[in-house]
TrEMBL record:
Pfam families in alphabetical order: F5_F8_type_C_2 (PF22633), GH141_M (PF21231)
GH141-like insertion domain ranges (all copies): 117-261
Biased composition (Polar residues): 633-642
Name by which UniProt lists this protein: Right-handed parallel beta-helix repeat-containing protein
SMART domains: PbH1
Transmembrane portions of the chain: none
Gene3D superfamilies linked to this entry: Galactose-binding domain-like, Single-stranded right-handed beta-helix, Pectin lyase-like
SUPFAM superfamilies in UniProt: Galactose-binding domain-like, Pectin lyase-like
Length: 734
């Protein structure tokens, strides 16, 4: 290219000087001005209308700090797009923290003799969540009810007498919350007749078997299936209000009653309940930015209706009284979100904060393309953080999700109410990027990409070239929430060109009570996926799982993990070059883990395992289940003794060592229960330090100690088997 002449340079400079700067419209809470200036700011709706009249330049709608109480969503459509190469930006003013809020304050609290406080609720408001001075309260709940008492059928449930529900003053305000494997159900009680309960429809029918509209033909996770074991709890009854921080909504009296936590003064407290759904809706827009804006107290109304929450997977539900036969989840319903983007192009959401929501954070759907959610924070959400795409495997071109990005976000404590929700969900997307996000403290899976369960209508789809890279995912599939069969990263469907790499995963289903909960879970028809260069530690079951023979050509290579896993199944799948059974992460793995996530952070280093070099033995051996399988560094291989009084397994470390902790990993059938862990210097255990475990060992049970020992024995206190996947003996910290 020839050098630019002086005249050309001057002409270019004049062109730059002539280009107008952005038009700035000023917005403030409760403003009523029309000029949208600093002196006379306007409302968000007035600023939107003013922006539509501006052409030939960028537009910036700057929101002053404070709370914008919305009774309906702020709607932005095609007319609110950037035009002719320009952009429209909705942003926080410099140094400001504006918040779009769907909350309604509840006031006039009065105290009762029992220490509870009650307030009237305005018409049109149904409090499902309550926040007191910003802290989430919990709907009053009771204990679990086993299937032997609360026997669920297609038409309802027994147990009204034993649970006391038959005598409750307002049982029809209460809900049953049921968790079956990966599903979560919330259905309101519709009636009580003797010992029998019926539930709101269509919630109960959609939660039961026989609809021909939910799950693959083999699915056995409905409320009336053999997998159903109990009602996790009933909630929202005055009779259950017994713990500080709980509340009850009475639909007949139109009141909320709350039992304050220590230090809460209800005479001065600010109490909010989410009322408005979808605080911002972007529909058919393009070249639009949303920056630095907060979204809080958005509602999710469906679960409080007769539709209830008939959970299917990942926070989606089955709704409606009828519908087409569907075993591939094509007609499931996504949760309501504070920010919804539909059919839009080049929308960029950044620096936003989503908190205290009754539903989800963001939904990108209906053919949204080239759109991003970046550098935003999500915390204290009833449902998931980000939902990308839809459930139709072969959409029309204009409805296909393509080239969307979810990156550098921080996601913590989502799925607070609907525990089947995931942190980031994507349906049938192409060229999706999920990169450098930090996800922590989630009840179910962290990141889920793909859909369809190998059903015929979903076997060929638009899924392809997706990237799940450099994310930090910790403390997911938390076992106390009883959601099973998931993973830190979960995939479905054939998606050629998809890569899962550079992620740091630590503590997924850790302390599990079943043989599930994975690191990277290539479920069902997951195919053509490359899993490489990930660091995966402290996983309740498998670091990588690919069990289905119809998932093909998946490849796992160059990963670092502290266990091992069976080979990938399916034609053409391979596992090679992985660094497994580690008891210390090497420097290169620590560096990969430290770079992962929104901000980067050190990895949790593994602790040395003294048992690896020891000699294992057991009181007897059932078949080929040798004692050495508990010291091979692999949590997917199991030891097993015969059933006998005082059955034991032990390891000889070779010489006495100062022991700081013993990890006991039960076998995959959760066999070992009611046992002593004995640590001794001598082989006769005469000088043993004994730690007792009541009930079943977990995966793992952690036992802290400070004892000098050469021999560590796990011995039943009664009759049965000892069966173990792994026993680690960690030296005392120095």
């Amino acid at each position: 290219m020839a050098p630019q002449s002086t005249a050309q340079a001057a002409q270019a400079a004049r062109a730059v000087q002539a280009a107008p700067g952005p038009k700035i419209l000023h917005v403030a809470p409760n403003a009523s001005g029309e000029s949208c200036t600093t002196a006379r700011p306007c409302s968000p709706q007035a600023a939107r209308d003013a922006a539509r009249t501006i052409s030939g330049r960028d537009v910036r709608v700057e929101l002053a700090g404070g709370t914008y109480e919305l009774r309906e969503p702020l709607k932005l459509g095609a007319a609110d797009s950037g035009r002719d190469g320009h952009t429209v930006t909705w942003t926080a003013a410099r140094g400001a923290r504006p918040v779009l809020s769907g909350g309604r304050a509840l006031t006039g609290w009065g105290k009762a003799a029992d220490g509870t406080w009650t307030a009237d609720v305005p018409e049109g408001v149904t409090p499902r969540q309550l926040f007191v001075n910003g802290d989430r309260a919990r709907r009053a709940r009771g204990a679990a009810c086993a299937a032997s008492i609360c026997d669920a059928t297609k038409t309802g449930m027994t147990g009204a007498t034993a649970t006391g529900i038959a005598t409750w003053q307002r049982p029809t305000d209460a809900e049953a919350v049921i968790k079956v494997r990966w599903r979560d159900y919330h259905c309101r009680i519709a009636g009580v007749a003797g010992d029998n309960l019926t539930f709101a429809q269509p919630c109960w029918t959609n939660s039961a078997s026989g609809t021909n509209r939910t799950g693959p033909a083999w699915d056995s996770t409905t409320v009336d299936s053999a997998r159903y074991s109990q009602v996790a709890f009933f909630e929202n009854a005055r009779e259950l209000l017994d713990k500080p921080g709980e509340f009850v909504w009475d639909s007949e009296e139109r009141t909320v009653t709350y039992l304050p936590r220590k230090g809460e003064d209800m005479g001065r407290a600010r109490v909010l309940t989410p009322v408005t759904e979808r605080l911002m809706v972007v529909d058919g827009a393009h070249d639009l930015r949303v920056q630095g804006i907060g979204f809080a107290y958005a509602a999710y109304g469906q679960p409080s209706t007769d539709e209830g929450y008939a959970g299917t997977q990942a926070g989606l539900t089955l709704t409606g009284t009828s519908g087409p036969v569907d075993h591939a989840g094509r007609h499931y319903t996504k949760p309501s979100a504070a920010l919804t983007v539909r059919g839009s192009r080049h929308v960029a959401v950044s620096g936003a904060e989503f908190t205290r929501l009754g539903g989800a954070g963001v939904v990108l759907e209906a053919g949204t393309k080239d759109t991003s959610v970046t550098r935003s924070r999500f915390t204290d959400l009833s449902s998931g953080a980000v939902y990308v795409g839809d459930t139709e495997p072969k959409p029309e071109t204009e409805l296909a999700g393509e080239r969307n990005t979810v990156a550098y976000n921080t996601i913590r404590r989502t799925g607070v109410e609907y525990t089947d929700a995931v942190g980031i969900w994507a349906g049938y997307e192409a060229e999706l990027t999920v990169d450098h996000n930090t996800l922590d403290d989630l009840p179910y899976s962290g990141i889920s990409v793909g859909w369809g369960w190998n059903q015929p209508e979903a076997q060929k789809s638009v899924l392809r070239d997706n990237r799940v890279t450099n994310n930090r995912i910790t403390n997911v599939m938390r076992v106390e929430y009883a959601q099973h069969d998931g993973g830190a990263i979960y995939t479905q469907g054939a998606q050629p060109g998809t890569v899962v790499s550079g992620n740091y995963i630590n503590r997924s289903a850790y302390g599990n009570t079943e043989r599930d909960g994975n690191g990277i879970y290539l479920d069902e028809q997951s195919s053509y996926i490359r899993v490489e260069g990930n660091v995966i530690t402290r996983i309740g079951y498998k670091w990588v799982s690919n069990w289905a023979d119809y998932g093909i050509q998946n490849h796992a290579t160059g990963n670092w993990t502290d266990t091992d896993a069976p080979a990938l199944t399916g034609t053409g799948s391979t596992m090679e070059g992985n660094h497994t059974e580690l008891d210390r992460l090497p420097a290169v793995a620590l560096a990969v883990a430290a770079r992962a996530g929104a901000h980067g952070a050190p990895a949790e280093q593994l602790r040395p395992d003294l048992a690896r070099e020891g000699t294992a033995s057991q009181s007897s051996t059932d078949g080929a289940a040798d004692a050495s399988y508990a010291t091979d560094g692999d949590t997917s291989t199991d030891t097993r003794t015969l059933s006998e009084p005082g059955a034991w397994w032990q390891v000889d470390l070779g010489d006495a060592r100062r022991v700081g902790q013993v990890e006991v990993w039960n076998n995959t059938s959760m066999t070992t229960a009611d046992f002593d862990v004995q640590l001794a210097r001598t082989a006769d255990f005469a000088d043993a330090t004994t730690l007792h475990v009541t009930g079943r060992s977990l995966r793992p049970t952690l036992l802290d100690t400070d004892a000098e020992a050469r021999y560590i024995r796990i011995k039943l206190t009664g009759t049965g088997r000892v069966a173990l996947a792994h026993v680690l003996v960690h030296p005392a910290r120095t």
